[in-house]
Amino acid sequence: MQSLKKYESPWMKVAIVAMVLLVIVLIRATWSVYQKSVHTAAKRDQVAREMEHLEDRQEFLIHETARLQTEEGIDEEIRDQFGFAEAGERVFIILDDTEATTTEVAEISFWQRLMMWFGTS
Fold this sequence. Notes:
Number of strands: 0
């Protein structure tokens, strides 16, 4: 019983409180590091996806630049951008049916037609 009494000193209670506080501080620090780790991993994944996209874009631009350095590539680009045609060729513009719009023609009365025929109005 006497061996237990030496652990009941006031300094022992202070030491236990200090240890509990130290454990709380260490847990908070560990949690903070964990959250930063999760955030960093998400950011790393986002940057990796962006890097992949930029590499694909760079590859496309290299091929596009090489294509535009040829005579055929320049002609093709001019045709696509401006709708030009070479001598002897025809250009057909094909409209998509879904974009076609109809306009209603207003009924023209007899008097309006008569006025148009005489050139007034």
